[in-house]
Design goal:
138 residues, mainly alpha, 4 helices, 0% strand
Amino acid sequence: MPVASGLTPALGVGIGCLMQPAMLITMNNAEPRDMGAASGTQTLLRTIGGSLGVAVLGSVYTGRLTAAVTDGLGAGGGRLTEGELTPGLLRDLPEPVQDVFRTGVVDGLHGVAFGTAALCAVAFGVAWLVREVPLRGR
């Protein structure tokens, strides 16, 4: 967990360094009368992309968690991931079941981390395709 906590600021700085140049590129390429629409469109697309990213990575997490718990406990173990398990109920389960569930959570988080790394690699590759346009003076 300390590694994930240490890498989170790097992810935040990277996203922060990406958002402002993207807005600057958008505003520089828009006509003055269209700047509001251009910045609004970029914000809308960023929001949609974030929502889709959370949905896809959430599905990856859930799928890997369910697969690990089902593999560890058999077909009946899948019921643990159907939303009825609370932290209080998890503490009352036998230790081997808790270990299987912990392993599933870790597998799910690894899937999210690898998915995020793949998305970052794609974004990095796409960034090389952005053509350079000089900033306008006035």
